[in-house]
């Protein structure tokens, strides 16, 4: 039996728009997503879909079909600490909070998928798990959800995720094989010297001079030790030290982030950051403390899973509307935790519409989407699930 998932999704378009705008008007941050969680529960309860809470304000739901295979679908839920400056009826009502990255759309799409698949569950040769993830923009709720066991009972065989993309026209998707997003490691360096009068620098040990050498030397790790064909970055985002022009301070702090595209480069750059910093500071008679955080890993698309997604998507939008993305993103994405644990695929759902002025970048206070992307996202996800389980 052929199922027209796009027709099913378009039949609920008004409902999808209503849900998305409600979430958009009431953004919540980090793990404090209790209103959003409540809205999701209302839909799942109405559809008699079983679920459990996960990672505090997240949800793991399951639709049980007629087989042992299980596929997971993930949607992130959280907003950003940003003031919404759009002039529209559905602009954020929460001061300093905004869905500026499309997570409201992702949540809406997954709810639409849940309703359609639950209604045809007797035709599914397996199970579907629905992961509503909190804190994607901060520490990554996916990591917590996985630790709590969402990939087991039943065992999840593969996971698929999507993200709206303002650089791709609505009606198209963007896909990439291999690495899709970078890994990140935020770091903090505290350099300690000896304070002194600015007119008598020889009586002290200057942490500002040491820090200046460190900042320059860290860039040479990337330019001279990582192959130029491979993506890697060290960004120093802040330097703080000193109180006046004529005082050599006692200490200086440097904060930044490492971004890498390969696991081996990630470990290498972390090691070299320590070695270079400690070497410079020691040679200049100072001392230092270095903290490197373990943040999001690289997001890898499994070749087989992404090929399957492309095949399913072509049934919905046609081969001509599937865009091959040549370059990975240096941004990070917590879906990477799923991709490190199961064969996974992550793709970009076009949400741009120049004729309607919907071109503003994500993480900006004018961001919006063409809501025509909502039923397309629902249909592609449904088709991918159906094809895999079949």
From TrEMBL:
Keywords, ordered alphabetically: Hydrolase, Manganese, Metal-binding
Enzyme class: hydrolase
Binding site for Mn(2+): 101, 103, 137, 163, 363
GO biological process per UniProt: diaminopimelate biosynthetic process
Top-level division of the source organism's lineage: Bacteria
Cofactor list: Mn(2+)
Residue ranges of every copy of the Peptidase M20 dimerisation domain listed in the record: 187-277
Assigned EC number: 3.5.1.47
Keyword Cell inner membrane attributed: no
Cited Gene3D superfamilies: 3.30.70.360, Zn peptidases
GO molecular function: metal ion binding; N-acetyldiaminopimelate deacetylase activity
Name of the protein described by the UniProt record: N-acetyl-L,L-diaminopimelate deacetylase
